[in-house]
Specification:
Blueprint lengths: L4 H16 L11 E5 L4 E3 L4 H4 L2 E6 L6 H11 L5 E7 L1 H9 L3 E3 L2 E3 L5 E4 L2 H9 L5 E7 L2 E6 L19 E3 L6 H13 L3 H5 L7 E4 L3 E3 L3 H10 L5 E5 H10 L3 E5 L11 E6 L6 H11 L2 H9 L3 E2 L8 E2 L1
Parallel strand pairs: 3-4, 3-7, 10-12
Antiparallel strand pairs: 1-2, 1-4, 5-6, 7-15, 8-15, 8-16, 8-17, 9-13, 9-14, 11-12
């Protein structure tokens, strides 16, 4: 996929901005975007969650895909003039925005988006039990990888090295980030490293093990920042996040995690239309679009793993 000059400039500005702010901020404004059919993108306009033509709350680790995906979608569906996309941890969305009134930077956000997606289908099942969502598709897959500093100065060879005493780690938090709550923690338990790496702590923006293991608030922004700024040596991330960071020119590299520890056979992204959606028909159009070769190719271009034809068929809980 060709990079346009405008896209390259935007990415560069994001990297520069991220380097000037604290790790806890680390680009979070770009997790709330409004895509306009004319190509303009609005950032941080939370009120758009109430009146856009399509409103989607998605698992945050897809943030890098959205610009290409939504641009292609709107080029094929020009009547859908505004698409509001939120890309933050799905556990946070579920607990703090769908099941109760949430706020972003002090502004209320809609409790009734048109679509909700998570890396854990159990999130959608919870909504189904509450009468909030009935149908879903599986639309892409991912796998775990280790992010390290460029050149891998600590010579980290794989997941077993997370048991070493000479490295500082930055991992997604186990409270709201599904990558760790459902997959990273399971990997560590499989390796017999869970207690050593986490000390059994469950918190976010905190040291689980003082000066050794940091739990982020949003790892897809913070872990690259911490590694680049020598605040961490390694972090559990998605393969797609390593690919994107390197494409950005970030000073990081990836270390593969062998199967089955990378959880590639378990990680599945599920999405469904909310029962109280304002734009039900537009949401259905987007689900059909996700099943197209063009949409699947866009995800694959960011190192996601395509869904099967059977997974892309609409199913009912």
């Amino acid at each position: 996929m060709n990079e346009t000059p405008v896209k390259i400039i935007l990415v560069a500005l994001l990297v520069i901005t991220s380097s000037l702010v604290s790790a806890k901020d680390a680009g979070h404004g770009h997790d709330y975007r409004t895509f306009n059919v004319n190509g303009d993108i609005g950032y941080g306009n939370v009120k758009d969650s109430y009146d856009s033509d399509l409103v989607m709350y998605l698992a945050g680790n897809q943030f890098m895909v959205m610009e290409d995906l939504i641009k292609d979608f709107q080029s094929k569906n020009k009547k859908i003039k505004t698409v509001y996309v939120e890309t933050i941890p799905p556990g946070q969305i579920l607990k703090k925005q769908l099941l109760k009134q949430g706020k972003i930077n002090g502004a209320k956000t809609s409790m009734t988006p048109d679509l909700f997606a998570s890396v854990n289908i159990n999130h959608l099942k919870k909504l189904n039990k509450k009468g909030l969502l009935n149908n879903y598709i599986i639309y892409t897959h991912n796998k775990l990888e280790l992010m390290v500093a460029e050149g891998n100065p600590k010579n980290i060879k794989g997941a077993k090295d997370l048991g070493r005493d000479d490295i500082v780690q930055s991992h997604p938090n186990p409270l709201t980030e599904g990558i760790f709550k459902f997959y990273g923690s399971e990997m560590l338990k499989d390796l017999g490293l869970y207690e050593k790496v986490t000390a059994g702590q469950k918190c976010k923006k905190c040291w689980a093990v003082p000066q050794k293991t940091w739990f982020t608030a949003r790892h897809h922004r913070e872990t690259p920042y911490r590694i680049e700024n020598k605040q961490a040596d390694v972090g559990i991330v998605w393969t797609s996040e390593v690919a994107y960071a390197k494409a950005e020119g970030r000073k990081v590299d990836g270390v593969a995690i062998q199967a089955p520890y990378n959880k590639q056979d378990k990680v599945a992204y599920a999405i469904g239309v909310m029962n109280k959606a304002r734009n039900t028909e537009n949401a259905k159009v987007f689900l059909k679009y996700l099943a197209t070769p063009d949409a699947q190719k866009i995800y694959a271009s960011y190192a996601f793993i395509p869904a099967t034809a059977e997974e892309l068929k609409l199913k009912t809980f």
